[in-house]
Design goal:
The chain has four helices and five strands. The chain is an alpha/beta fold and 135 residues long. The chain has one domain: Response regulator (Rossmann fold, 3-Layer(aba) Sandwich), CATH 3.40.50. The protein has a five-stranded parallel beta sheet, sandwiched between helices. The longest helix has 13 residues.
């Protein structure tokens, strides 16, 4: 009889902080993972904000951080932030964009914690993630 196998890499056993990355551009999702995973983060990537929203509602505990693009096909980043904060009001979020700037949320009731303009350097993302999670 063989022993049951245990997978120590399963998400339930992974104590690294979870980051959701949401962007409809696969290369940018890969960049987020390549920057954050070596820093000790577990990154789940989503090309579709609706799928990210469903996963967010099912993830316990919620991710430590969401990094989301602004301009996506079915929902923009501000809509995603608002939907996530209805579930977890203190959810930390970085909004990234190459099409808009911080004025997009100036008068919004629900704002991201930080904004990062595209294109950005890997160090900028890493520093911003460290700073927001240290707060």
């Amino acid at each position: 009889m063989s022993q049951p196998s245990t997978n120590n890499k399963s998400p339930a056993n992974d104590s690294r902080p979870l980051v959701f990355a949401v962007d409809d551009e696969p290369m940018l999702l890969e960049l987020v993972a390549l920057v954050l995973e070596p820093l000790g983060f577990r990154v789940r990537t989503f090309r579709d904000p609706d799928t990210a929203m469903r996963a967010f509602g099912l993830t316990t505990p919620p991710p430590a951080l969401i990094v989301t693009d602004y301009a996506m096909h079915t929902m923009n980043g501000m809509d995603l932030i608002q939907a996530c904060r209805r579930i977890h009001p203190r959810q930390k979020v970085i909004l990234v964009s190459g099409t808009v700037d911080e004025t997009i949320y100036r008068n919004a009731e629900c704002k991201p914690d930080r904004f990062l303009a595209k294109p950005y350097q890997a160090k900028q993302l890493a520093d911003l993630v460290r700073a927001i999670l240290a707060e």
